[in-house]
Amino acid sequence: MHLEAVLKSSVRHAKPAGLTLQYGTAGFRTKAEHLDHVMYRMGLLAVLRSKKTKSVIGVMVTASHNPEEDNGVKLVDPMGEMLVQEWEVYATNLANAEEHELQTALTNIIKEETINMQDESCVVIGRDTRPSSENLSLAVIDGVTAFESRYQDYGLVSTPQLHYIVCCRNTDGRYGEPTVEGYYQKLSKAFNDLVKQSPNSEADKKSLSIDGANGIGALKIREMEQHLQPLLSLLLFNDGSKGKLNHACGADYVKVLQKAPEGIDMKPGERCCSFDGDADRIVYYYKDNEHRFHLLDGDKIATLISTFIKELLVKVDLTLNMGVVQTAYANGSSTRYLEEIMKVPVYCAKTGVKHLHHKAQEFDIGVYFEANGHGTVNFMILHFVNERAFCPKMYWIKMSFVVYVRFG
Ligand SMILES: CC(=O)N[C@H]1[C@@H](OP(=O)(O)O)O[C@H](CO)[C@@H](O)[C@@H]1O
């Protein structure tokens, strides 16, 4: 058992006595200076989760849309989902255990989950561009290596990229190549194929102005840009060269203030979008000829996507059950439109991707979006999973569709 090694290295990541933190909607989040011990311990927890699930687990160091001074951690489960809720209590107990209670907290998890400490484990680690993120990710690695686990540090990646990598690693590459380059190739191929299907693909060449929130999204979209040309050209602003992360920019700013971020001089008709600090949300917007600002938030994205998928289903004559999942923050008129005009069932879940995702899994096609721009489409008939037969029509719809899935 490696607990002795853990207790030894824990001293380098000692918890400030009396400090307690709550596991929030998407993990721990607070001022960066209070997080070193939490990161170390989440490294430990990720190893235990990896041994338990016999899969690769992800740890993303980010505080997403929070100010630059904050930081946080998101744990990624085997299929690229958020950490299963039953383990959140272990995360909280570990993060809040005083130094002398750490051994007991770890032993309890190992016993309760009947974890065989001899089992293999592997953790993949990513981080956003916050100045504190590099050291905090080293603390995660210290936790992982204290348990003598394998790991791979992917360095600077967006949250969706880390989720993607975890899923690829656990499906032997059938979902895609587990690299950032593999991610660009998969998404850009889907995008380019879809645009080429349009009868006017030449005339349909588009440009998009992107607010990178001065964060990781800016860095990564720069890398992805070459894969999208010539069908989509990008104009990047808030790329981190001048401004501060999430300051007067980013998806949250645009959504909350219903106005364009600083740093862009938007022309009427110009298509714009904003990421948040870890690029797992997106909102779109434009100005009309009267200079009125129009926002396409998660509600509108969900509506457009459901309409698009419904049309595809009719086209290929496929009867599948599709549902939309929103939260209580959704605009009531989007819900009414979906239910009454589109005739799509809409469900309300608690705030947090894990809740929406869970509900969306009840449908063959589950579209879920929070108004703030987190969301995706869940296809239950996954073409690479053996449990259900390969379905070419579904594959086609899915591949036509990947492009609409959030930047992640
Ligand atoms: C992955 C996840 O669950 N993210 C949460 C979290 O957003 P972040 O962008 O990850 O900070 O907080 C939001 C606000 O509470 C909530 O809407 C969202 O679902």
Automatic annotation (TrEMBL):
Name under which the protein is recorded: phosphoacetylglucosamine mutase
Record organism: Engystomops pustulosus (Tungara frog)
CDD domains named in the record: PGM3
E.C. code: 5.4.2.3
Domain Phosphoacetylglucosamine mutase AMG1: 181-283, 297-379
Taxonomic placement: Eukaryota, Metazoa, Chordata, Craniata, Vertebrata
GO biological process: carbohydrate metabolic process; hemopoiesis; UDP-N-acetylglucosamine biosynthetic process
Enzyme class: isomerase
Cofactor dependency: Mg(2+)
Family annotation (InterPro entries): A-D-PHexomutase_a/b/a-I, A-D-PHexomutase_a/b/a-I/II/III, A-D-PHexomutase_CS, AMG1_II, AMG1_III, PAGM
Pathway: Nucleotide-sugar biosynthesis; UDP-N-acetyl-alpha-D-glucosamine biosynthesis; N-acetyl-alpha-D-glucosamine 1-phosphate from alpha-D-glucosamine 6-phosphate (route I): step 2/2
Keyword list, A-Z: Isomerase, Magnesium, Metal-binding, Phosphoprotein
Segments crossing the lipid bilayer: none
